[in-house]
């Protein structure tokens, strides 16, 4: 196990920000941390990096306690983006790379590579404050990647990026994963987590509500969606036993069910009423799971 978070609790005064968190991440795995605002994601990252000390529990990476300050193998994209606005991009990135243990020559080479890869070589000699917010974000991402870390902690890496840049960053992160790096990132975008992560956790109020592989999380939810497209009104079917929720759509309706057999009964009942144009059983989306789990935790 590369990264082990074992029964970790963090309190600020009497307030519990992270409550008995358990996460295990294998090397070469992409792990998604999902959670409502204030769920404890950033606090968790800071504890992993040794920037905050847990009140209870242990965190180890490759069997040892982590110190972000001294380990050259860790890359961190903090939530609060902290570049020096007056400094030129090049000076800034070389300075940050040197803090991560790189020599100037290697830093310059890595800088050229990453500015080219993220299609912003023209900003090399600009001051950070002259760049747009999204391009500043790319510079900060480069700062977290350029020393080729083996453990990457990314706090909301995609926020503020346009779709083209999101794809660029996804591809870069996947390359790191394919090279054996362990990656942990937080996001409010379910689709990014669904697409990228082998494993995930959903947190609310410091507690881990759900965790596992995407498949396990979806199966564990115990509900499925049945999508029916038809040209007649399907709303009568909402009251059938086993139908938990019906959401009308332009072409028909989506029924949430908790038992496979109900899908069959829905189809039969729908067919009695008219021709069916489409009938599809779908796994629940991470979005639905998040809304229900986090919504219940708020209640
Ligand atoms: N230094 C601190 N002192 C007191 N409370 C803190 C401190 N840092 C965080 N908290 C509280 O701990 C809780 C968790 O905060 P955290 O930043 O970890 O959440 P988050 O999941 O990253 O949220 P977001 O998605 O909004 O970034 C919040 O209620 C926050 O106010």
Automatic annotation (TrEMBL):
This is ABC transporter ATP-binding protein. PANTHER family: ABC TRANSPORTER ATP-BINDING PROTEIN ALBC-RELATED. The keyword Transport applies. InterPro entries: AAA+_ATPase, ABC_transporter-like_ATP-bd, ABC_transporter-like_CS, ABC_Transporter_VariousFunc, DrrA1/2-like_C, P-loop_NTPase. It comes from the Bacteria. Residues 3-230 form the ABC transporter domain. It holds the Pfam family DrrA1-3_C. GO terms for molecular function: ATP binding; ATP hydrolysis activity. PROSITE patterns: ABC_TRANSPORTER_1, ABC_TRANSPORTER_2. The keyword Cell division does not apply.
């Amino acid at each position: 196990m590369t990264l082990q978070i074992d029964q970790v609790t963090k309190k600020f005064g009497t307030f519990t920000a992270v409550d008995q968190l358990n996460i295990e991440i294998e090397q070469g795995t992409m792990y998604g941390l999902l959670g409502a605002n204030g769920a404890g994601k950033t606090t968790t990252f800071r504890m992993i990096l040794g920037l905050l000390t847990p009140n209870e529990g242990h965190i180890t990476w490759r069997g040892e306690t982590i110190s972000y300050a001294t380990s050259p193998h860790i890359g961190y994209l903090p939530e609060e983006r902290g570049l020096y606005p007056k400094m030129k991009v090049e000076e800034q990135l070389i300075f940050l790379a040197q803090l991560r243990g790189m020599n100037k020559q290697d830093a310059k080479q890595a800088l050229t590579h990453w500015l080219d890869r993220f299609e912003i070589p023209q900003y090399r000699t600009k001051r950070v404050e002259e760049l747009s917010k999204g391009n500043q974000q790319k510079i900060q991402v480069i700062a977290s990647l350029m020393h080729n870390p083996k453990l990457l902690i990314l706090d909301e890496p995609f926020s503020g990026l346009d779709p083209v840049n999101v794809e660029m960053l996804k591809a870069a992160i996947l390359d790191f994963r394919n090279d054996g790096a362990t990656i942990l990132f937080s996001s409010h975008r379910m689709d990014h987590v669904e697409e990228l992560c082998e494993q995930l956790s959903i947190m609310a109020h410091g507690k881990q509500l759900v965790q596992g592989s995407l498949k396990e999380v979806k199966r564990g939810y115990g509900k499925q969606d049945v999508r029916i497209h038809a040209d007649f009104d399907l709303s009568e079917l909402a009251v059938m036993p086993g139908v938990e929720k019906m959401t009308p759509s332009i072409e028909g309706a989506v029924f949430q069910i908790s038992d496979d057999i109900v899908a069959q009964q829905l189809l039969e009942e729908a067919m009695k009423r008219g021709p069916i144009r489409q009938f599809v059983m779908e796994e629940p989306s991470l979005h639905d799971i998040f809304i229900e789990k986090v919504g219940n935790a708020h209640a």
